[in-house]
């Protein structure tokens, strides 16, 4: 049975992809690795930018990159704590 990812898990996966690539990734590879449709990906990105989990930056040539904010790093830490808690108690 394939388990559908819940919202918090999808957010974690997106933030983790950014972190794992030295906190800087272009939008297209992020979309590809996120395993979401482009519409769903856009919805998540809009929310993450609005809520200040990630930000878009441009380099000198105008290329866009997505990076984590402090709030994004904090989410990753707390999410791991929650998952470890769930695992410790077999919930």
Q: Can you describe what's shown?
A:
The chain has 91 residues and is mainly α. The chain has a single domain, classed as Arc Repressor Mutant, subunit A. The chain is 59% helix and 11% strand. The protein is built from 4 helices and 2 strands, in the order αααββα. Strand 1 (54-58) and strand 2 form a beta hairpin. The two termini are 19 Å apart.
Instruction: Kindly estimate the percentage of residues that lie in beta strands according to DSSP.
Output: 5-15%
Major pleated sheet: 2 strands, antiparallel
Number of extended strands: 2
End-to-end CA span: 19 Å
Radius of gyration over C-alpha positions, nearest whole angstrom = 14 Å
Instruction: Give the domain tally.
Output: 1
CATH H-level name... which superfamily?
Answer: Winged helix-like DNA-binding domain superfamily/Winged helix DNA-binding domain
Q: CATH top level? A: Mainly Alpha
Q: Say what the CATH topology is.
A: Arc Repressor Mutant, subunit A
Strand order of the largest sheet: 1-2
Identify the quaternary structure here: single chain
Shape: globular
Helix and strand content put the structural class at: mainly alpha
Q: Topology of this structure?
A:
Blueprint: H1 7-20, H2 27-34, H3 38-50, E1 54-58, E2 64-68, H4 70-88
Helix pairs in contact: 1-4
List keywords for this structure.
91 residues; mainly alpha; Arc Repressor Mutant, subunit A; two-stranded antiparallel ribbon; 4 helices; 59% helix; globular
How do you describe this structure in short?
The chain is mostly helical and 91 residues long. It has helices at 7-20, 27-34, 38-50, 70-88; strands at residues 54-58, 64-68.
